[in-house]
Design a protein that fits this description.
This protein has 203 residues and is α+β, with helices and mostly antiparallel strands. It is 18% helix and 27% strand.
Amino acid sequence: MKAFSRYRPHPWHGLTPGDGVPSLVNAYIEITPFDLVKYEIDKESGYLRVDRPHRTSSLPPSLYGFVPGTYAGERVAALMAGADRGDGDPIDICVLSERPIARSEVVLSARLVGGLPMLDHGEADDKLIGILERDNVWGDVRELDELPRTMIDRLRHYFSTYKLLPGEPAQRVQVGAPYGTEHAFAVLDASIRDYRSTFGSSA
C-alpha cells in the first residue's frame, strides 16, 4: 500500500520539491490567471491567506505558486547580481498550461524550462518558469527559447509593473533578461540547499 499522510501536510514544509528534480518539480499553486485577489501561503498554518486585492487591472498571465522544500537564502542571492539577500520565501514558479486551470491550492508537476531574475528592494526573488507536465501543446518544450517570445514578455511585463500605480514613485523592482534551464537548475539547487540549511530536510 502506498504511504499517505493522515493529516493535510503543510504545502511548503510537508511536501518535497519532487522526485524528478531538477527537471521536473512539484508546484503548489497560489494564484491563477483568473484571480483578482493576491493569495499567499500562510507560513504558520499552510492555508492560503488573502494577501490583498490586486491594485491594478493587471492579472498574472500564468499559474503562479512555489516549489515546496525550497528557500531563497544566501545561496540563491549569490546567483543574482546586486542581491543583498534572498527574499526568505520559497522559490516562486510560473506554470504555463494550454488548458485553463481555474483553481488554486492544487499541486502539479512542472518541467523547468527557465526563469526570470527579479531583484526586489535588494532581495533575490527569482521566478522560475515551468510547463505543466504532459501538457498537450507545450509538453515537449525543454528550453525557454522554444516558447513564443510573447509568453515570456507577458511574464516580464507583469512582474515589472504589477505594483505600479499612477502618480506614485516607481518601485525598486528590476526584472532582468530571461535565463534558460541551466541557470534555472542552479537556482533550484541553491534554494533546496538553502532550505535544508535553514529548516532541515522537507517531507
